[in-house]
Each structure stands twice: as structure tokens, then as C-alpha cells.
């Protein structure tokens, strides 16, 4: 890979004029009738159109071949690699790095919705988790060396990465429980850490192109709590790293990307190469990954829900039971109506949240981000479940993407913090607002 | 009442520039944190601020006195009449006639939300149903004479009206079933109709100021179906009109406005005075009442939900059970989080629908209008129900407005067409869209 | 009133043979198809048949006249008094005192279900709350004097009583919060208490025949917690007792029985006349009221749900919309099916709980009693709500008993402890069982 | 295999005395606290105890080895074969053939619940679908020859079978759509049929021991509708039979039993060997499979739910989040309480239905059977879903049986008729009952 003269992550564009974004949002139509182009800021429009055409004309049609050519975690089917080359050529590449394209989080939200309509689209455009979050982290906190070694190749698409956060032995929904150890140890005069721990749900760790892990742990020597949780960049082929097994979700192994359990046994890394930000910055970095990322996840889930809704209605219009098309039966009509409002609700609150991030930043929009995190998967699961039901036996098996869609969205209620934690966050935000309104000091009550 | 030189309904302003509206919508904050002023078009901003101040400082505080002074249907407590004078003086009067104020449906939606936070606000500002719909109908379809006789006084606030649609003897959810008879009869050389039938749920008919009914029925002589259903303007004191009884909703009679059962026994009216539009225009006129009107209803319900949500959270923060504030209990936190997402969903889809009406008109937005009609009351009822539960016995009785709020919102699932009918409409719209996408002629399937 | 030679509460029959009960339960049919007689123990069968005939032929037909003759809290319409005389004559009187009739809690549960199908039946048969609970308390804890003065007349039906537990100023869902004061004071050499406090939701306190209150409070002088909460019998006409107001539930005042707010201002009572059990026995006595009482409440609610379900289906079969009976529409069919399973579930778990009380006692069945307390009203509300929806406007007003039914059942989610408290109880019971299974000492975890 | 002197299916015992069954049912405790032995008829008690011990001590512990030894559809792991030998030895074999053991459907329901707590138990005891239904069909409708050739070996456990009903090309929820063709053709003077069609969801067809298919189709020559749908017994190795593929459910292939798509291309069978009952008896035979079978499915699902509930509570008691055990958090407590009532409701209505079948037969209990068919999986799914949520990532993967449980129970909402069809059945039954009550002839309305 040859880097551009200026590294790609520095191609900052002039700041997008926010007013443009707002002026257009409302024109984005309801989910099932597609997205109107003028909901986007001007810089986003040609990108969106190219992306949509690419997904409709190239990604969805390629899904079947991709499935056929799969061979566990050994290879990435050529059809996906070809799609990646094509997307790069079209300039619809790394779109999640919105500042590079002079677009807004809201713009990218609408693009994520489109990506959600094909299982291949996010991979094809280098916009798939966990690389997106890892690239953001490297961009914001990485040293020049880390950027050159990892961020460049990741942005180029030839390398992949994993994020090693969750641990099997502790309730990771409370991130303070994370207990992988970073023990300070100088080897050959070089300062460094010995990493020991076990991680799981390390998505992408088994991808044959995966070269780097971003690992959360704690520096054992630091007695001050604020210096504890720390993030390290660890090359995935380091001695002591073992892929213990591939986890399945429902029955799917999600090859060739997968969700690995990874053992880290006395893995030594140098401080200079590995430390992200500083010791104790673990939470801050982890948080930074989560704001826009949740918009992406939700909007992709919504795109997927739209696809499921569309196939459900199409099936109802073409399948006859008890003498008439399913669509003429009242129970079917109620399903359609319920799905439609679920879909529109999910979409509306997520886009509003995206816009809020554009305007006031992810930190201030924290409550809304937590809210969509629990509300959207719930809406989407209801839609996917109805679509499965309408498809009968076909809706349970590999002849539709429905059970896979269900399985994927179901994990969203757990990944990046379970519903329950996000409900606590929202409740706290609302209580704070109420106390303020009531003129009561927050400290005395919460 | 002295009319302005130009009648009030002709003060058309220059067309509001739609782009302004869109550019601002997104800035309206989530319900519980109030509405940001810059979500409104510029002409709406000062109105909105005056309205909000008026409601907060004058309407809600007046509720208690209003309740105390109530004496069935005999009088309108002076406190409300004073509020009306005040609102007129402030220029926050007849705001629902958006074209008079150069504001959008979306702007008025945000104002309706504010009105929903006090039971008196819509009455105080001459924006209460059914007068709003009746004024619109008179404005759009009335003759000059009808406008002078009824529209002027209604807009001035000294007169009230009722809409006589639903009938106890037929399933009025299918409006074609309406069977009140309009029999042609010329008296003293004047063409006219003899009206016979029974109506109920005629809201406002018992208000002592009610002077006029808008009545749906069918012209018995017209053999052609398209000439059947017709709308007449009938003075409420006409011979043959009897208020049979006041209906209660749950246990409330909703005095002094009420919901009457009305008997029309051989009520003769002249064609010139009474006919709205033309014979057979009944459905068309009925439809025209319903578009923006549903935005108003939904947004008021949402404002009410916000009030209920606020009192729920405040109660949780100040009431201790089992050793700590309710707000510290997990079951309470889950209730807050669920209410918050319900509220934001309801609000987001309704505002999007309002904007759609602004952009493409109520007819084209029909599907969305039906969707909010069934989706919003469901969200709001869940919120009110939780607020009642949190208040214990107090939440069931007159010490809170909660049971009344519940009762009011529950009727919204039935009034103007039950949920089931609106779900059928949405299902049909979605099926049409799907057939189009599939390249199948609609006629062959629906 | 002339007492029998042996006071009525002493007519203990030979112990019912429990095996009989079990052998029959299963034959009780699903709710909507009526109750088979052989689900009852032999002694219960003739009573059940007389009761059912009485309710069907006399109570439900009398409802209309009762409503018409109502005049607030001033009188009890004669038609109810006549029903009472008739029920006493038939021997279907005080059936809730199961030991007097040699029947089981399960038998009486099935009878309560029948009573639920008419608003008058429980009153007509002297089986209405709160008298039932008060009579039980007097029976189990009263002195001979208290029994003669109050229990006899209550059982005879000429006197009524109220239970003063809940207080407006504290979260009474945690009964330890109750703070009405019992201050020891000897007057004229007679030991006694001065009662001061405010109670509300004192059902029946306004009935013109109400003579006695059972009052929960705390003896202020007792420093030991276990001597604190105490129950007193207080004559309702004592100096210092004031009915402050009638509370409404949704808009209903539930006259002529009502729910009163009662002020107790320095009400002196003698210890001998008033103390129930001993000082500090308040909780124990309060608990004793709640076991079988919850079966009664749930089964009556289920009987009411069956009535609502029946009228819903009948309406669907006779009302046409969009060209065919509602019952032929798919959305209606789904409603019927959902109601049917809700009804059968509610009924099955309540009858199983009743039988459990028969076999192992209310204390051991505590978890099940809490479970039906939150599960059954939820099922029943869903049924009543659907029945309202199907009736359109008629379902909201006094033309059906539906809104009243809804309002009544909604209070069951709060009265005698809100859902949330009972869910905590069930969770604790299940956790204890799990700890035992796991071999972990309960103390270490809960 | 050597048959007993009297074939095993003829060992009819003296008719079980029904009263015994009823007398005991009620004593079966709520699900989570286990089943009391005296809820069973006396003949069932020793069987139940042996079965429970066998499942607890041998089946569940064997699950891990079974999983490890699996090798697709090639072999049945020896551990299962050993369990089968053991069960046969213990006499807990073919228990579903209740008449052989002198037990009731209700007894067997309680046994099925136990079987549901281990994935291996039904197979180990020769009580797994679809063999159970097929054996019943062969028993009730088979010729002596068919019984000897197939029923004997199936009952002995050495042979397995499949039921070929559903077809990929038609909406099989309306069984009249089934279109596999049986063409009459005499070969070598022997009357027979040529079978042509495609079936799927043929559970067990890939089991290496599967020798026989029971196939639904229509005799093409029969012009009379009542002679159309017919059932044939077809040896699975017949020329023209092809296993097209294994279907997955969510991602599971359910090896070694599986769900096959089967192609039947001109498969000739003799009439004497193959015809079950007579031509046109297809529906009758299909129906006969479904009554008690649905009890078995539901009770096994309930047993599974109990297992999931138990692991959920145990996890809550041992896992700490935010400073205390999950079980101490209010949101957890609400989950426990909701699961508990869901579980008890599911169990209660299914056992009542089982008893109804014992008393009045499956045909008369049709409505109840349809009701449990849609109500029970819904309850169970809610429980399993909560258990997954509480387990976080572990709840999604193979470290718990939870996602597999979810996937299995989800199919129950579709298999043997989707929810929607069963809701129609229940609605029809309730409407019939209402019409009868109203004195209206059914014919005129339904």
C-alpha cells in the first residue's frame, strides 16, 4: 500500500456548514418509501446516490455468490474484494470518517440505512465495525507511528482489526469490571507491558487479514484508580496471542469475520508502539468510540428492517391462503400497520439523534444515544419477527435472510452495553433535568 | 361583534417560504426538554413565545379556579372568558388558521403541543375542537352569508359550534353508514330540507354559547350515490332540535362543553342558508376536516403526555418507598426510560407528518396521518398509565389530572375513526407502494 | 337484630374433606363456557347453583333500576335491600365465611367469579369488600364484646364497615410508613387511645349504614418497633371523625358506597372496646385479611372480564362494518383469540392459587397470592380494553358497563399493594427457592 | 428385532379410571418448584419418578458428550443409543402411548414437561416427534402388515420415520393446498401409486436410521374432493426419493435428526403396502396426529422454559453488576416476576387442556388445543428471551442452551399451523358458543 503524500486522515475538508444539514433532514421520507436526496447536505448527495446505486446494483446481487464461496475463516471470497476495489474507485470509501467527506453524522446515518439493506455493503465500503471504531480511535488518539503502521492500512482496506473489550469472566456491562492485566515490564531497555487476560466477542479477530487488536485492560502497578483502565494497540500475531475458538450467535459463526474468544498470555508490547493516549485513558477512549457508532448500528438495523418489511409485504401480496392473498386478511393488515409505525418511529428518533450529535456533540447527546440504543433494536426485532412469521417455514431457514437478521439485531440489545444499562442512563438524565426544573440540587438526590 | 373591514378569514398573508420551515424542524428538542424556538419559522417564533408564556403563567394556574366554578352546562366560568380576552389581546388567537398567521402546520403542531399541557389552553385561544374543524369547513366551503352569520362569530370566540357526524344506530367508523335523512321540501316557496336523525358524541353541543351544528346526512331523493352524503349548517336552536342527554366518558361529563346525544326531528332549513358546498359533497368536506386536525389532536396529546411524564418523574424524586426515593428503584428507572422513548417517538413521527402536510398536502400525506392516528394515542396511553401507577391512589382520583388525561386520550383511539380503520388505510398504502415497486398493477390485487 | 342462640360465627361445620376439592377442580370449564358444577365440593354445589340462578335472574336484571334510583350517598336503593333479603332467604349469604358453609376457598373462588358478572351480586349476598375482610378480622381477633357489637350486625347485613389503612401523606405501599397516631390516654379512669390521623380510600365509609372503622395506626408511646403498628375498632360516629370528601375513580364516585377521605381528630376510644388483638399486632392482622381476599378480588375481576368478553363477541356478531359482520374481520378474530387465552390464563392461575390456600394455607401460598395480584388485573384490563374498543363510542360511555369495569379493575393494580411490591415479593420467593436449590444460604444473598 | 408374542401395540391395559386423574391434577405444583407426585394417577407415579431421575441423572449430564460426538447426519452418538437402552430397561419407553401404560394424557403431559428439561430425553425414551405421531397413525390406521413392518421397529427404537406434509411451493398452513400427486398405476399386476412432489421440513428424514415416510398428497384420478387427500406409507429408500438438502433453523442444522427437503420423483409404491386407511382419509389422519401431540410439544417447551428460568435466576444470584448481585436490581426482579407468571400461566392452561382431552376427547377440546398452540410458545419465548438478555454475550452463543432453545420454540409458532390459523379456529369456536347463547343459528353468521 502506498500512502498519499498527505496521509489520508489529514485530508480535513472545510467545516461543513451545519445549517445546511438541518435544512434538509426533514425531507428524508419515511423508511419504506425510500430516502429523498434533498434530506442530505450538498456534499453528501452525490456520494449517497453512488452508494445507493452500488448497493442495489452490486452488493445485494453479490450476496448469493458470497455465501456460496464462503469457506469458514480461511478466505475472504473474491467477490467481496472486488466490491471493495469498486467502492474505492467510486469514492464511496471510509464514509464513516465524515470529516474527510465534508458530510454530517446525519448524512452518514442515511447512508448507513442504505448499507443496512445488504449484508455486504458496510464491508464493501470499508465502513464495517469494529474497524470503524478502531480507525476513529487511532485517528484521535494514535501516535504518528501507530497511524502509519495501522491507521493507513486499515483505511486502505487491506488490513482489519479487532476490539478486545468484553471478558467472559466478569459482567462487562459495567466496564469497570474489565480485568485484563497490563503489567509494566522493561525488556532490553525498552519500556513496555505484559498483557494477560481473556477476551471474547472480539469481532473480526479471525478474519485472515486481521493484524491488530485494540485492547482494554488495567495497568496493575497504578494504585490511583484514574490511572487504571488503559487502551493498548497489540499486533494480533504477537507471541502469546491465541484464538481460542469462534463463538456462534444463535447457530451462525458469522464467518469469515466471526466473533472470537482470544487468550492473551504474557504478551509483551513496547509502550511506545502500544500505548493509546495515556495510562488511565481507557474509559475516555472507549466512550469516544460509542457516539456516532451507535447511530451507524441503529441506522443499519433500520435499513435491514426495511428490507425485511419489504419482503414481508411482497410475500403477503403474492401468497394465497384461505382463498385470498394474505394481504387481504385483517391480521396481515394489522401486521403491516404495526411494522410501518415501528419503522418510522425507529428511524425518526435515530435521525433526530444524529442531528443532535452534529449540533451539540456526542457527549451532550448522551441521553439520546442511550435511548436509541435500547429503543431501536426493540422496534426492529418486532418487524423482523413478523416478517419471519409471515414467511412460515421459509422464514426460519436459509432461504431468506430473516433468521440471520433476527440473530444479528438481537445481539444489538446486548453489545456495547445491555438495554438495562442504557435505561439507567436515560433515567438518570431525565431525573437530572427534573431536579433542575424543580430547583433541587442534583447531588442531594442522585 | 363588529367585523373588520376585510373579513378576518381573508387576511391571507404572503405564502410562507417553505424552506424556512424545513430548515428549522430538526432543532425542536425532545419533548421532555422543551421546544427550541429555532425549530419554528420566523413568523411563528414570537407567537410561540407569547403562547408558551401565556399557558405557563395564566392557563395552568387558572385550572383550579375553573374546576371550582364549574356548574354543569349552565355557565362558562368567568376565568376562562377572561383568558380568552387576554389571548385575543395577545394576538394568540385562532392560531390553527395557519394561513392567517403566515405559519406552517408544523409550527402550529409545536404550538398544539404546548396547548396540550393545560386543559384550558385550546379553549382560551379559540383553538378547540370541534370549532376549529367547523371554522375550516365554513372557510373553505361556506357561502358569504354563512361566513358572515357563523364564521365571523366563531372566529371572534363568542359563539361555539358542534359537528354532528356519528350516529348511535350504525357503525359510523364506516362513514357510508351515516343515515340521518335530508328530505327536500319547499316551504313558502323557499327550497329547503327536512332533517331527521339522531346523532351522538356531538362535542360542545351543550355549551351555552353553541349556536350552530354542522350536520352530515344523506339527501333521500338523490338516487345517484355520489349525490347522497351531504353537509348542512343547522342552527342549534331550530325547532325540532333536542339535546337528549349528556354522554359521559368514563365517569366524566366534560362539562361545560360535553358530548351530547342530539335528536333532529323534522328540522326544516332553507337550502340557501344551510347547504355546505353542494349535494353529495359530504365526504369531501368531512375529509378536509381531518388532515391537520389530527396533527393538532396528536400534538396536544403529546403535550399532555409530557405533563404526565414530568409529574411522574417529580413524584419519583420526592417520594420514598422501602428506604429510598422511588427514582432510585430499578423498576422506576425502567418506567422513565420507556416513557422517554415513547414520548420521543410519538413526537417525532407527528412532527414529520406535519411537515409532510406542509410540503405535499394532507391528501398525499394520508398514510402518515392515519399512522399517527393509531400510533400516538397508544404511546401516550402507556405514559399516562405509568404516571397513574406511580401516583398510587392519588393517580386514580381528582387530586391529579391523570385519570382525566387517560380518559381523554383513550377516546382518541375511537374518535375520527377507530385504530382498526386507520390500520387498514396504512396497510393499503403500503401494499400499493409495494405493488408499484414490484411492477404489478394495483387493480389486480387490492 | 336478634342473634341466633349460638352466634353465627361459631357454626363451625365438620372440616371439609380436602381431597374432594382437588378431585373436582379440574372440571371447572374454561371461563367463557361456564363453570361445571362438578368442579365444586359437594356442599358447595347447591349453593353455587342457587347463587348462579340468583345472579342471572335477579341481580343483573336489577342493575338498571339500581342505577336509576341512586341518589348519591343518601340512600341505598330499595332494590338492593330486597336482593339482600332474598339472598339471605336463599341461604347464599356470607358465603365468604367458607367454614360456615363447609366449603373451600376454591369453591368460593368459583362463586366469586359468578358474583363478578353483576355489580350488585357481592353486595346482595353480603360478600362485598371491605366488610368481608373486616368480618374476618373481627372473627379471628375480636373480643366477645366486639363480636357482639359489630360482627353480628355486619354478618346480618344491616351494618357496614370501612377499613382505614392508606394515608394520603405517605407511601402506603410500604405499610410501615402508616403514621396515624394512637396516643394512650386514660379518661374517667378508663384506659384508651386518642386517634389522630388522616386516611383515604376508605371504601364504604360513606354508606349510610356504615357504623364502624377498622383503623391501622401506631401507638406513639411504644418505643419497641414490634409494639408499634396496631389495629383499633373505631365507631364511625365517634366525635372527631369527619368524612372530608368522596374520592372519585376516573370520574366515578362509586356511590352509594364510595371511597372516602376521613379525618380523625383526637378521637378517643377505650382500649377494651377498641383494641384488636394486642398492641403491635397491626401487621399480622392486616396480613390475615389479604390471602383469600385476593382470590375473591381476582375471581370477581375474572367474572367481570367474562361478561365484557361475552358482550364483545356478541357485538362483533351483530354489527356490520365494511360489508360484513365485525366477527368476520381478521382483526376481530385476533382480538377474540387473545381475549380467550388471557381469560383462561387468569382463571387457571387464580383457581390453582385458591386450591393451594386450601391445601397449605395462605401464608405458604404467599408467592402465588402476590403473583395473581399483579398478573390477573393485567389480563383483565386487556380484555376490557378490547371490549371498549370494539364498542366504539358506546364503549366509552354509560351505555355499557365497560368504562366502569375498566376503572374498577385499574384500581386493583394499586389497591392492597401496587404491582411493583408484589413483583418484589415474587422475585424474593423465587430467589429463595433458587438459593436453596443451589445450596447457598439465603442470608448471604437476600 | 424380535417382537413379543403379542405385538406391543396391543398390550391394552384396563381402562384408566378417569376420576383418578382429575383428583390429582391440582396438586401439580407451579413449574418452578417442581411437580408433586400426587398430581399423577397411581400407574403414572413410579414411571414419573423413574423418568425424572433418569433425566436428571443421566440425560442432562450426557448432553455435553452428545454435542462433542456429533458428526453431522452420519452417526447417532453412542451416548444416546446407550440412553435408549437404559430407558427401555427402566420401562420408561414409548410413554406417549398412554394406553399401553394405563396413564392419562395429563400424566404424560407432566412427563413431557420433564422431558423438555433435556434435549436428549425425548429421544432417549422413544418419545420424540415425528415418530410419536407416526406410530400413533400406524397404530390407529395401519394394516397388520404395516404394523409389523414399521410400527414394531419404530416402537422398538431401532428405526426412525419422517412425516412429509409441508411443501415449499404452497401455503401449507391451509392443508388443502398440499399438491404432491399420487397417480394410480398398476405395475406387474399390482395396484399402486406413483408419488411425485416436493416436501420440506421433514424432520428426522436424514437420521441414518430413518426407514419410512408418512406422506400426504392427493390422488389425482379422484374427481370427488372427499377422495382427494390421502396418506401413504413410503419406504425412505425407495427409488426416486432424494434428500435435497438439510434446512437450518436460525443457524442450526439440528443434526443428527435435521429437517430435510425431500424430492419424490415418480416413486412407485403398492397400494396394499402403502395406503393408510383409505383414499380421502388424509385430513382425518392428519388431524388425529395433532391433539395430544400439541400437549406434548407445549409441555416440553414449558419444561425448557423452566430450565431457562432456573439458569436465569441462578445467574442473577451469582453475578454482580454495579456493586450488587443482579438479583438485587429492580429491573431483574421485574423480569423474575414476569417470567414466573408467564410460566405458571402456560403450564396451567396446558394441563387443563390435557385433562380436557382425557375427559371429552381431542376433537371436543379442539378450541383449547388451538389456544395453547398459540399462547404457550408466546409465553415461553418471552421467558427464554429474558434469560438470554440476563446472560449477556453468553446468552447468545453455544455456552448456554439459550439461543438454541429460542430457535426451537420460535418454530413452534409456525409448525403444525401458524398462530394466525389457530387464532381463527379459536375465534370461530367462541363465536359459535356466543351464537348458541344468543339463540342464533350458526349457519346464518359464520
TrEMBL record, chains A, B, C, D:
<dbReference type="GO" id="GO:0033539">
    <property type="term" value="P:fatty acid beta-oxidation using acyl-CoA dehydrogenase"/>
</dbReference>
<dbReference type="InterPro" id="IPR006091">
    <property type="entry name" value="Acyl-CoA_Oxase/DH_mid-dom"/>
</dbReference>
<dbReference type="InterPro" id="IPR037069">
    <property type="entry name" value="AcylCoA_DH/ox_N_sf"/>
</dbReference>
<dbReference type="GO" id="GO:0003995">
    <property type="term" value="F:acyl-CoA dehydrogenase activity"/>
</dbReference>
<dbReference type="InterPro" id="IPR036250">
    <property type="entry name" value="AcylCo_DH-like_C"/>
</dbReference>
<keyword id="KW-0274">FAD</keyword>
<dbReference type="InterPro" id="IPR046373">
    <property type="entry name" value="Acyl-CoA_Oxase/DH_mid-dom_sf"/>
</dbReference>
<feature type="domain" description="Acyl-CoA dehydrogenase/oxidase C-terminal">
    <location>
        <begin position="280"/>
        <end position="429"/>
    </location>
</feature>
<dbReference type="InterPro" id="IPR009100">
    <property type="entry name" value="AcylCoA_DH/oxidase_NM_dom_sf"/>
</dbReference>
<dbReference type="Pfam" id="PF02770">
    <property type="entry name" value="Acyl-CoA_dh_M"/>
</dbReference>
<comment type="similarity">
    <text>Belongs to the acyl-CoA dehydrogenase family.</text>
</comment>
<keyword id="KW-0285">Flavoprotein</keyword>
<dbReference type="Pfam" id="PF00441">
    <property type="entry name" value="Acyl-CoA_dh_1"/>
</dbReference>
<feature type="domain" description="Acyl-CoA oxidase/dehydrogenase middle">
    <location>
        <begin position="162"/>
        <end position="267"/>
    </location>
</feature>
<dbReference type="InterPro" id="IPR009075">
    <property type="entry name" value="AcylCo_DH/oxidase_C"/>
</dbReference>
<dbReference type="InterPro" id="IPR050741">
    <property type="entry name" value="Acyl-CoA_dehydrogenase"/>
</dbReference>
<protein>
    <recommendedName>
        <fullName>Acyl-CoA dehydrogenase</fullName>
    </recommendedName>
</protein>
<dbReference type="GO" id="GO:0005737">
    <property type="term" value="C:cytoplasm"/>
</dbReference>
<keyword id="KW-0560">Oxidoreductase</keyword>
<dbReference type="GO" id="GO:0050660">
    <property type="term" value="F:flavin adenine dinucleotide binding"/>
</dbReference>
Amino acid at each position: 500500500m502506498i500512502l498519499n503524500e498527505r496521509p489520508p486522515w489529514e485530508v480535513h475538508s472545510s467545516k461543513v456548514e451545519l445549517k445546511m444539514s438541518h435544512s434538509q433532514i426533514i425531507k428524508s421520507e419515511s423508511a419504506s418509501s425510500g430516502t429523498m436526496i434533498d434530506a442530505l447536505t450538498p456534499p453528501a448527495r452525490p456520494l449517497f446516490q453512488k452508494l445507493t446505486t452500488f448497493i442495489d446494483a452490486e452488493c445485494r446481487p453479490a450476496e448469493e455468490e458470497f455465501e456460496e464461496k464462503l469457506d469458514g475463516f480461511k478466505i475472504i471470497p473474491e467477490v467481496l474484494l472486488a466490491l471493495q476495489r469498486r467502492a474505492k474507485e467510486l469514492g464511496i470509501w471510509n464514509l464513516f470518517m465524515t470529516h474527510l467527506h465534508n458530510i454530517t453524522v446525519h448524512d452518514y446515518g442515511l447512508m448507513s440505512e442504505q448499507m443496512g439493506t445488504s449484508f455486504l455493503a458496510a464491508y464493501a465500503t470499508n465502513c464495517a465495525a469494529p474497524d470503524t471504531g478502531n480507525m476513529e480511535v487511532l485517528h484521535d488518539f494514535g501516535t504518528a507511528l501507530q497511524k502509519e503502521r495501522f491507521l493507513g492500512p486499515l483505511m486502505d482496506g487491506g488490513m482489519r482489526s479487532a476490539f478486545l473489550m468484553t471478558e467472559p469472566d466478569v459482567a462487562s456491562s459495567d466496564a469497570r469490571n474489565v480485568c485484563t492485566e497490563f503489567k509494566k515490564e522493561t525488556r532490553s531497555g525498552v519500556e513496555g507491558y505484559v498483557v494477560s487476560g481473556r477476551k471474547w466477542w472480539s469481532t473480526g479477530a479471525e478474519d485472515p487479514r486481521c493484524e491488530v487488536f485494540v485492547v482494554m485492560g488495567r495497568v496493575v502497578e497504578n494504585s490511583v484508580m484514574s490511572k487504571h483502565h488503559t487502551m493498548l494497540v497489540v499486533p494480533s500475531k504477537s507471541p502469546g496471542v491465541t484464538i481460542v475458538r469462534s463463538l456462534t450467535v444463535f447457530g451462525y459463526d458469522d464467518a469469515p469475520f466471526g466473533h472470537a474468544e482470544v487468550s492473551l498470555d504474557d504478551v509483551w508490547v513496547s509502550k511506545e508502539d502500544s500505548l493509546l493516549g495515556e495510562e488511565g485513558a481507557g474509559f475516555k477512549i472507549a466512550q469516544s468510540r460509542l457516539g456516532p457508532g451507535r447511530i451507524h448500528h441503529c441506522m443499519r438495523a433500520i435499513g435491514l428492517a426495511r428490507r425485511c418489511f419489504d419482503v414481508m409485504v411482497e410475500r403477503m401480496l403474492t401468497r394465497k391462503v384461505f382463498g385470498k392473498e394474505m394481504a387481504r386478511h385483517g391480521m396481515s393488515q394489522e401486521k403491516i400497520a404495526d411494522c410501518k409505525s415501528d419503522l418510522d418511529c425507529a428511524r425518526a428518533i435515530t435521525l433526530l439523534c444524529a442531528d443532535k450529535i452534529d449540533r451539540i456533540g456526542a457527549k451532550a447527546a448522551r441521553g439520546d444515544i442511550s435511548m436509541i440504543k435500547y429503543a431501536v433494536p426493540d422496534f426492529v426485532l418486532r418487524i423482523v419477527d413478523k416478517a419471519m412469521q409471515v414467511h412460515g417455514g421459509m422464514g426460519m431457514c436459509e432461504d431468506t435472510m430473516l433468521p440471520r437478521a433476527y440473530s444479528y439485531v438481537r445481539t444489538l440489545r446486548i453489545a456495547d452495553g445491555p438495554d438495562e444499562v442504557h435505561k439507567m442512563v436515560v433515567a438518570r438524565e431525565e431525573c437530572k433535568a427534573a431536579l433542575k426544573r424543580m430547583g433541587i440540587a442534583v447531588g442531594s438526590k442522585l
